[in-house]
Amino acid sequence: MNPLDMMKVYGRVAEIYRLRLGEAVSAYGTAMRGAASAFAAAGRPQDPTGAWRDTVSYTFDAAQRSLIFWDTMRQRGNNWIAHEKAGKPPLLAFDYETIADARTYARPANYALVRIQPPEGVTLDPDKRPFLIIDPRAGHGPGIGGFKADSEVGFALKAGHAVYMVIFFPEPVPGQTLADVSLAEAEFVRIVRERHPTRGKPVVMGNCQGGWAAMLVAALDPDNVGPIVVNGAPMSYWAGNDAENPMRYAGGVLGGAWTASLAADLGGGVFDGAYLVDNFEYLNPANTYFGKYYNLYSRIDTEPARFLEFERWWGGYFLMNREEIKWIVENLFVGNKLAAGKAEWAPGKTFDLKAVRSPIIVFASLGDNITPPQQAINWVADLYPTTQALKDAGQVVVGLMHESVGHLGIFVSGAVAKREHAQIVDLIDYVEALAPGLYGMTIEEDHSGPEVKYDVTLTERRVEDLAVLQKYSRKDEIPFEAVANVSEVNARTYETFVHPVLSAVVTPEMGRAMRAVHPLRAVRWGLSDLNPFLAGLAPFAEFARGQRTPRNEDGPHAAAEHFMATAITAGFDLYRQMRDATVETEFFRLYGTLAMVDPDLTAPATTAIVEQSPVEVASALAALREGGFTDAAVRVALLAQKRGGGQQRLSTLKQIRELVGQEVGLLALPPDDAQAVIRRQSIIVEHAPDEALATLPSLLPTPEARAHLLTLLDRLLANIAFGPHVSDVVYDVKRVLAESPAGQGAEGQDAEGQIIPFPSYAGQAV
Q1: 748: pLDDT confidence band, cut at 50, 70 and 90?
Q2: Which Gene3D superfamilies has this protein been placed in (predicted)?
């Protein structure tokens, strides 16, 4: 890069930095002005008696709150110690039994398969496929998918599905690798399928890190994995928006993957999950150091139980082997090799996501700053750069986007479980019947009755439209390629010169000692009954709970407290925004230059894409006249869907299945055969819709078959309020069948046997 270009890069980066600092200062000023206005409104003059009462009540209330607050912190420490002594079992709200333990496998791993016991009053449906839920091993322990009754586990059970979970133990088996883990999870899927042989392939649901783990399993063993649900799972690791997703710059600023190896070496060859939790807490210092504690203090009469429940999970730190974390960071977070098909699980063997043939539901949130929606969904465009490429591959991807919930809320929020996860579970029975393509899933609410009712709408989207998630373009991902290259150099240097020394000096015992004094652990055992200064706190706190003195929430003292809380939060937020802007600026200043690109984030990316049709397309088009009644019915449904713009309602799909599902014949086929029919007919309708209609008589050679199809179509029209596109398709089908005599195989062909497309006269007088 010549000096002039380099000055141009630095100038643009500096301008972006200046703008972001201005935004940070403006946000701070807005927060402080709002807090000051609220404080001024509450500071109206009071008579001396009222002012005295307000002061006394506030003082007594503050003293009681403080006692209860610190006693809650003591209970948190005691809970942490008890959980550690118990071996950190899964924090599930359900009973379970262990089915398989991967520690006994030929390639052992610290994972196990458990079956969730349905609670009293819940009956499982023997005809419904089982669920297998994989929780994240990202610093914390398992259980987040079944943390509450209203959870992924809870709603799957309520819907009648047998539910299994993949759990893991606090310490890894010596020598285990990510390949061992993936192979063990693939074996768990096989076991679940064998236990329910008549129900179809298991649904595999993964949360966060468990999401990409589910995709790895599906890539290893696509024949046994059913529909896949990935919740808040990072898959496209370089993606994100500038000024919104600071975590994606951490690897570059720290020089790549060598820091994970260093942390593992300092742990005696074991990586401490507390470091990963540190990364999460780093994102929002206002909440980490003040917000969650002030929330506890300000709601001290109702919040402690929820606080303690969540902190039991948040404070359970699990370990990884050095090779595991090294593989994850090098191949995924820094290398971004998964979607590119370059992540090796054995020499010469890679995880190929294009091998996954099961439908995939992606649940992400615009409010998630740990796994932003770009990281959750952009891998689709990486694998299938065009909509046609996705359809030709026969893949179904459904995207569900929440407007605001944070990362953890995707898994633990009861409201999200009732609204989103319950509808995902409901959709599972129908997702395999969708034609290949990308769908947007929206949830509609009906509040007309005593209980909220939900319905799901699936709208066909274009892969090219995923670019709307980018504030500017994906051009700002180019410098991450330079990060990957720098990381490889730094990692080789570290492994050559530093690792041999540290591995010889730091023993496993020293690693355990260092983990014990990690700040996240020390703050818990330091505020527990192990601390003699807290020995007499419990009785005073209990007395305070029984003698609560209400305060005047509208008084000047409470207003001053709220003002100070707002000021502290705004100060932390100002620091965070300035820190993130600085880190991001230095990232692009360094790696933008190394990548020799102009980081003009306002310029749209232009990529020339050549669509290629696989052999399956040619095979499907060659079989235009092949098939029977089921193929014909599916083809008609797909023609109607295509003319209707690809929008479908789940309630309508349920009605269709109830009215004609058994007679179409699709449900009677093995799931793989049924999907093959749908994929084949979808390709035909997508590439040759006119010929698909013209050759329909060849699939229905007898008068009985044609009459049966028309009877089913009339039944649907009589019972369901379809749009006019369905009536048009039915009209065309009737016309084509009427113009082609039954029992002859050459209808719709000229003398040379070429297909003659029938023009559509729907809605016109003939």
Answers
A1: very low
A2: alpha/beta hydrolase
